[in-house]
Write a structure and sequence with these properties.
With 182 residues, the protein is mostly helical. It contains six helices and two strands. It has one domain.
């Protein structure tokens, strides 16, 4: 089985059962709300509010994908050994997906809260990931894994870094959110 097949199957398994209306509703809220907010509040303030709206929708989507639309297991499943799967394979589909899923969260945190420092976004990602893993353990939905927390936090950090890079390149001056230039 190819690496791409494993990755595709994992994505399908992770979000299996999530109805299409969840995606369509979230997209409509962000687009309609965004156009309205830019028209009413202006570009700069509108973008901040759109980022917050997207953040809210994205966190709700994460909770649905990891908790609501998963089947309940008979017994709780929890792995406490950090980086256990690296003994089997270096880049597992599970690790890649957990990083990728949190990149948009890190990207949208900085414009959502203009005074947020760059290092606060991964802390938020860490806290959200721990919250999700604890709820998965409590409600026996999926496997609670320390590696998921590590990978999700890394994804949030990458997303924040990408936002700071895009902001710096688009403005030609230091990016917001506490990033300092030399």
């Amino acid at each position: 089985m190819s690496y791409w097949t494993l990755f595709r199957d994992y994505i399908a398994d992770l979000y299996h059962g999530m109805p299409l209306w969840v995606y369509v509703t979230a997209l409509c809220i962000v687009v309609a709300g965004g156009v309205t907010l830019i028209a009413v509040k202006g570009w700069k303030k509108g973008i901040t509010v759109i980022a917050r709206l997207f953040l809210l929708v994205y966190v709700a989507w994460l909770l649905c994908a990891t908790l609501v639309f998963r089947t309940t297991k008979a017994l709780p499943d929890f792995r406490t050994i950090p980086l256990w799967h690296y003994a089997e394979e270096i880049l597992s589909p599970d690790a890649i997906v957990n990083v990728l899923v949190f990149i948009p969260l890190g990207f949208v945190l900085c414009p959502s809260f203009r005074k947020m420092k760059w290092w606060q976004a991964p802390i938020f990602g860490f806290a959200l990931s721990v919250f999700i893993e604890l709820l998965q353990l409590l409600f026996r939905r999926g496997c609670s894994d320390v590696d998921d927390v590590i990978h999700n936090t890394l994804g949030c950090l990458i997303g924040c870094g990408l936002y700071l890079l895009v902001a710096r390149l688009s403005r030609g001056r230091p990016a917001p959110s506490g990033a300092k230039s030399r």
